[in-house]
Design goal:
The chain contains one helix and 29 strands. It is mainly beta.
């Protein structure tokens, strides 16, 4: 299926030309400084943060209640998914939204993943995923998943497979060959024993997929080769909605209702620590591990701040205040490459 996006205007045409030009010269650019992109769900904005100083360098309005963000490898363009209003395309250098991608009424796009010059995204309202081409401003295909609540996208180590949790179907879908298009994709649905799988990540060696089941406080562990759940952990969490691996094999699970971060050693399945994040609920959370594996950034929506975790000591070493009623959530790294 191919759709022409309805929202491309004169400014969009100019920015589209810029996108093509930037993509062609990205390899010749000097390394850019690292920046942290932080979605502000309650403020409907994208914050651009200097992670070294914690200074907020800019805020760009987005569609309502933005949920997930990704960016082009050159750090020039961000793509922000809003279940209410589609996908915002943002020029990070100019600090402005340049166009809006509309997958259709009730489509509820949620996650976004940039790969090979295209933006892959979940379409919860249509039980589907899709692919958007920023250069042509087309949604060039969609693919039915057939499960309820297809929420996130996690890229496999082969760069051709994607994994996605289906929250209301209590399952995880494996889409093999998805980068080659719908006709070349093989779908496998894996039921999980827990209820409402949401947070999902792949182990650094690509062998295991862990998903936090939000409604029962557990984690299901899937063997990627056999596509089967091999173990379920009861961690007694209250509302775990995001889970991330560190490069050295720790698993970070944010539990907003308990205002804590649960740290698990993946190899032994042993809980290492519960890190306190405050005295009150921190709400829907997000976890982003720094590229060098030295620290993790924790988006605490109800606390209006981003906490910084030292991954050696497992202690909170700093925080970035995002402003009253900002509601920080999903984050993404740009620059430094």
């Amino acid at each position: 299926m191919m759709r022409r996006n309805r929202f491309l205007g004169i400014a969009g045409v100019a920015s589209l030309t810029a996108f093509v030009a930037v993509a062609s010269i990205a390899s010749a650019q000097l390394p850019s400084p690292e920046r942290l992109l932080v979605l502000l769900r309650d403020a409907s904005a994208l914050a651009i943060v200097d992670p070294a100083s914690g200074m907020i360098l800019g805020r760009v309005p987005t569609a309502r209640d933005p949920h997930e963000v990704t960016a082009s490898p050159d750090g020039r363009f961000a793509f922000v998914a809003s279940p209410s209003d589609g996908i915002s395309v943002i020029d990070i250098v100019a600090q402005k939204a340049i166009r809006r991608v509309d997958p259709g009424p009730g489509s509820a796009p949620h996650d976004v993943l940039f790969l090979g010059g295209k933006v892959y995204f979940t379409i919860e309202g249509y039980k589907s995923i899709g692919r958007y081409d920023p250069q042509t401003n087309d949604i060039d295909w969609t693919l039915g998943i057939g499960q309820d609540g297809t929420h996130l996208l996690v890229l496999g180590s082969d760069m051709r497979t994607m994994f996605m949790p289906n929250r209301r179907s209590n399952s995880v879908t494996v889409a093999e060959g998805v980068t080659d298009g719908p006709s070349k994709t093989t779908l496998t649905v894996i039921p999980v024993p827990g209820e409402f799988p949401e947070g999902l990540d792949l182990s650094p060696d690509g062998r295991e997929l862990w998903t936090a089941t939000r409604n029962d406080g557990g984690v299901s562990i899937i063997d990627v080769a056999s596509k089967q759940v091999v173990q379920a952990l009861d961690l007694g969490m209250k509302d775990a909605n995001r889970l991330k691996f560190t490069p050295d094999g720790k698993v970070l699970i944010i539990d907003g209702e308990a205002a804590s971060l649960v740290v698990v050693d993946a190899a032994s399945r042993r809980e290492l620590k519960r890190v306190s994040l405050g005295t009150a609920e921190t709400g829907d959370g997000a976890v982003l591990v720094a590229r060098d594996g030295s620290r993790a950034y924790l988006g605490l929506r109800d606390a209006d701040r981003v906490a910084v975790l030292d991954l050696t000591t497992l202690e909170i070493t700093g925080e970035i205040l995002m402003g009253p009623d900002s509601g920080p959530g999903c984050m993404f790294w740009i620059g430094g490459n």
